[in-house]
Amino acid sequence: MPYNSSTNYRPSFLFRNKHWSTIYPSVFRKIPEVVYERERMELPDGDFLDVDWSRKEGRHLVIVLHGLEGSADRPYVRGIIQVMNQSGWDGVGLNFRGCSGTPNRLARGYHSGETGDIKYLVEKIIAEANYETINLVGFSLGGNVTMKFLGELGEQLPVQIKRAVGISVPVDLYGSCLEIQKWNNRIYLNSFLKNLKIKTLLKEDILRPHLDLEKIYGAKDFFQFDGAATAPLHGFSSATEYYNKSSSLNYLPRITIPVLLINALNDTFLSETSYPVELAKKSENIHLVTPKYGGHVGFVTRHPENIYWTEQMVRNFFIPKK
Questions:
Q1: What is the residue range of 8's domain?
Q2: pTM for the full model?
């Protein structure tokens, strides 16, 4: 396949605006039906992961990974878990390190290419539970992590993982950083940087021996922030090396299971290189869908059960109609 530029996503006129489509769900959407039970997992390096479960005592599980500075509490995570709960699946939202409301213990944190924690979570679930299926959904940064994880393991992927979906995924991180620093995206960039700097402030005592904090606080874009913080904390020589080595675009050809990649053409965060059309056309596993509208992690749908178009796409991809 698998490339499809024509979709059945037809939003109302208001939600054809990429910025309104991006902002509306995070501000106005509520999903009270999903009630979480939190589990704290101790990690081998002395840190911890907080994961949020919504169990239906099923034999199938969906793991959902959030985006930059998000959490499992975001409406888009809850939306996926809600729709899969309705089909009898268990759901678990992974909070990346430092994203659960409690700062993590170590200087290091999470980043766009860090796959060790999702690997640990999957292995722990397989060892402790008896799921027939463990599928993954990743949004934005979490989508890049998901696709990189699948490509890294390739043929060694656990047999329980059957399918995965990535939504609004910056598979080329360098290109997306160039996009988000454009003037029309400054509101998003400034919001992300503000949150990242607040987290730096909360961990100053831990970070000061490792980083130049003044460079972090003075960062005006992701290139500067990642060069001062993300790269040195996680073993990269520069922001550019971090982007190049962490982009899932390099790993998509190695994926051995069916995956669905949904990137709207009007996603204001994505560069042209995050639409791997030629790769999808030649691939047996990469199903690329590029709706004209949707924004970034938007895809708002007027639905009586508060289900968005991407959530219906996930359910249909994971549970194909016979």
A1: 3-172+247-318
A2: 0.96
